[in-house]
Specification:
The chain is of the alpha/beta class. It has a domain of 69 residues: Nucleotidyltransferase, domain 5. The protein is 33% helix and 14% strand. The chain contains three helices and five strands; from the N terminus they run αβββαβαβ. A five-stranded mixed β-sheet has the order 3-2-1-4-5. A hairpin with a 2-residue loop joins strand 2 and strand 3. The longest helix is centred in the first third of the chain and has 21 residues. 5% of the residues are buried.
Length: 140
C-alpha cells in the first residue's frame, strides 16, 4: 500500500507499486516450473521422414463439381443428375486413386438440410475430400 509521509498531504503518489508485479511474476514462474517437465516426451521414437514427391509422381486430379439449385435440383459436372445416380457416380469416384475432391456449389437460399444430405451421402459412398465453393467478397 502506498502511503505518503511528510508535509505534502493530498498529492498524488509518484512511486510505482511493484508488489502486484512481483506477485504475478511469481505465479507465472510457478506455472512454468510445473508445466515445463510435461513438455518433454519421456519415450523417444524414431519418426520416419517423408520423401519429397518428384514432379513425375504428382498427379493433378481435377475436382468434381456438384451444383445444387434453390429448388433442390442437382447438376454433377454440369449435367442434371438424380440422387441415386449421384450416389453411384460418387461411389465410382471414391474408388479412384488419388481421390478427387467433391466441390459443392449450393445456392444461397437453399435449405441446409439438402446440403447436409448430399454431404452425408458423399461420405457414405467413401468420399474423403468435400469442399464448398463460394464467391469472393466484393472489393470496396
Amino acid at each position: 500500500m502506498a502511503m505518503s509521509v511528510g508535509g505534502n498531504t493530498g498529492g498524488p503518489v509518484s512511486e510505482i507499486n511493484v508488489t502486484p508485479l512481483a506477485d504475478v511474476m511469481l505465479v507465472l514462474l510457478i506455472i512454468f516450473m510445473i508445466t515445463a517437465p510435461l513438455m518433454s516426451h519421456p519415450v523417444t521414437i524414431t519418426v520416419p521422414t517423408a520423401a519429397p514427391k518428384t514432379s513425375e509422381e504428382k498427379i493433378d486430379v481435377p475436382p468434381l463439381d456438384l451444383a445444387i439449385k434453390e429448388d433442390g435440383s442437382m447438376y454433377f459436372q454440369d449435367q442434371p443428375v438424380s440422387e441415386a445416380a449421384l450416389k453411384a457416380q460418387l461411389a465410382v469416384a471414391a474408388q479412384k486413386s488419388p481421390q478427387p475432391e467433391l466441390q459443392i456449389r449450393a445456392d444461397k437460399a437453399i435449405e441446409w438440410k439438402i446440403v447436409r444430405k448430399v454431404i452425408s451421402d458423399a461420405k457414405a459412398q467413401g468420399m474423403v475430400h468435400v469442399g464448398f465453393m463460394t464467391t469472393a467478397p466484393a472489393k470496396e
